[in-house]
Design a protein that fits this description.
Elements: H1 6-31, H2 36-67, H3 69-74, H4 81-90
Length: 92
């Protein structure tokens, strides 16, 4: 993530790693005939963790864009406000 500061990037990576661990628990529960409640609870946790990581990524990009919109417009992979809005809405 080019636009995130180090602390933000670390938080996002931690969320994604937590989601990966929860997804591993879902897979294990399915493979070992875990209870429906356990599987659905873990799936909900994975979904929430991924959503929060996505929102954090978009929030970081929005902060960067607002801080220096001209620089963003000049960057090769810079996002427009419209693109950020579309990404944000794709998570809801």
């Amino acid at each position: 993530m080019r636009n995130a500061d180090e602390a933000t990037q670390k938080r996002i990576v931690n969320r994604l790693k937590r989601a990966r661990g929860q997804l591993d628990a879902v897979i294990n529960a399915v493979e070992t005939d875990g209870s429906c409640r356990e599987i659905v609870t873990q799936l909900a946790a994975v979904s929430t963790a991924l959503d929060r990581a996505g929102f954090a990524i978009i929030s970081s990009a929005m902060q960067h864009c607002i801080a220096d919109p001209q620089k963003i417009a000049e960057e090769e992979d810079g996002l427009t406000v419209e693109e950020l809005e579309k990404l944000f809405l794709s998570l809801s």
